[in-house]
Amino acid sequence: MTDIVAGSRGSRVWVNAALPILGAVITIGAWWGATAAFHIDPFYLPSPVDVIDSFMRTPQYLLQETWTTLQRVLIGFVIAVAGGLAIAVTLAASSVVERMAMPVLAAVNAIPKVALAPLLLVWMGFGDSPKIVMVVLLSFFPVIVSTMAGLTSTPADLRELARSLKASWWQTFVKVRLTWALPQVFVGLKVATPLAIIGAVIGEVVNPDHGLGSVIAGSGASNDTPLAFAALVLLALLGVVLFYLVAGIERVLVPWARTINS
Amino acid sequence: MITIDGVSQTFKGRSGPVEAIRDINLTVGEGEFLTVIGRSGCGKSTLLRMVAGLLKPTAGAVQVAGETVRGPRRDVAMVFQKPALLPWRSVEDNVMLPVEIFGWRKSEHRANADRLLEMTGLTAFRKRLPHELSGGMQQRVSLCRALIQNPKVMLLDEPFSALDALTREELAVELQRIHMELGTTMIFVTHSIQEAVLLADRVAVLSSRPGQLRRLVEIPIPRPRSFGHNAHLDQVANISAELHSLLLSDAHLPRTQTA
Ligand SMILES: Nc1ncnc2c1ncn2[C@@H]1O[C@H](COP(=O)(O)OP(=O)(O)O)[C@@H](O)[C@H]1O
Ligand SMILES: [Mg+2]
């Protein structure tokens, strides 16, 4: 009995920590192996060692740029989440507004955002704002869609319960629908996190000043592929950290969700 | 306490109107335990939802405590087939939900919640979340949540039908105790003859499609009653047989005859 429990706990540690690390090690190993085996020119595909070298040459600079990008991502993401939630709640409250607004929102979402970057430059010039706006544009829609889906998925028995207690619309909304929607909201947040980073990078590549996107744009001009890869790796790490941060917040806020869905 | 006066309900279904309930007349006395029994789909839930004020009758009216029912009332509590608990709320917070929604002062009702949890054997589980409880315990929580309203009337829609046989019996006996202790007027919908005979003062047998009142059967067995061995086995057997034949014979009646 104790053996079985200990075994399952051991395998949980294995699944949660060791497997992801193993996956990363295998991926980096394959990358390294490929560059070594085929003698690939670092100009086309630098090896992991070249990338680390490149990072170690100017670590402070790269971390500074990472911080800049992270700030833009976070500010834009917070705006997108707050705005997306507010819009979703408004749409869920009134089917008239929903009918009117949904096609417009879907159309805005369908516009290729890269095409907007030059316009943002015209409207806002250089600096943080056009990048933050790009982050918002890319990440707001999944938040709206998932929140709406959550708000309209309240089970019939809970709706009937609220009615039988004569709960007001607002009481039903706050005490039942909103909390019920949280697991779905987090699905949207997890989709939106990488999009937020992509938004910041688009803004920085098209309209470079600071940030990792600007580093990539600059490295292209100076044929420094390892530096571009160093920036890409930092962006990827940023993505992973933010994703797990959101997942961690979800665990704290909706501990009940896992058990409901399983 | 409750007067059901010529109540009918016809739904507008996709393929034409569906007559669910036709012209039901019933009175339920104060403190009475009425069971409504009928085959599934015969309109039991529909009837109960009309008494609860969740559904407006297409004809007739329901009165509770002398007032015509126009919507849900605070002194009428419902218990559904599913426990309908909020999965993020602990047992005691689920029980307190009606208090919050009614805007009652929580501190005044805490003691009552404690007493109800005690009465249903949930005290040790008060901090647990619903998914950590068995189906039977979840349904006990939903009973407590109904009782905290201090209802004059409780409407129970097949509350135990999703549970296993033993838990059902256990909860039915518990509900009998609650009824004896509090004297709340109850309408209890079921398709179990056993439950009906254990709990009811009177059993209303509905015919199917459309649901009509087929017979009112008195159960003059003294309480507390119990499943299995007791002094009234013959009576229980007779009444059960009668209910059985009423429910079964219904299937052979042609539509025109029930109309
Ligand atoms: N909202 C509704 N719209 C249309 N038909 C309904 C609706 N609710 C119930 N019915 C129909 O009314 C009949 C009685 O349903 P119900 O009261 O749920 O039966 P029971 O509870 O006895 O199983 C069924 O035929 C059902 O399909
Ligand atoms: Mg039913």
From TrEMBL, chain A:
A family per Pfam: BPD_transp_1
Protein name per UniProt: ABC transporter permease
Cellular compartments annotated: Cell membrane
Gene3D superfamilies associated with the record: MetI-like
Assigned protein family: Belongs to the binding-protein-dependent transport system permease family.
Any one GO BP annotation for this protein: transmembrane transport
A Gene Ontology cellular-component term: plasma membrane
Domain ABC transmembrane type-1 stretches: 66-246
Keywords: Cell membrane, Membrane, Transmembrane, Transmembrane helix, Transport
Membrane-spanning residues: 12-34, 73-97, 104-126, 132-151, 185-206, 226-247
TrEMBL record, chain B:
Domain ABC transporter: start-end pairs: 2-233
Keywords (A to Z) from UniProt: ATP-binding, Nucleotide-binding, Transport
Gene Ontology MF term list: ATP binding; ATP hydrolysis activity
A Pfam family recorded for this sequence: ABC_tran
InterPro entries reported in the protein's UniProt record: AAA+_ATPase, ABC_transporter-like_ATP-bd, ABC_transporter-like_CS, ABC_transporter_ATP-bind, P-loop_NTPase
Gene3D superfamilies documented for this protein: P-loop containing nucleotide triphosphate hydrolases
Domain of life of the native organism: Bacteria
Protein name: ABC transporter ATP-binding protein
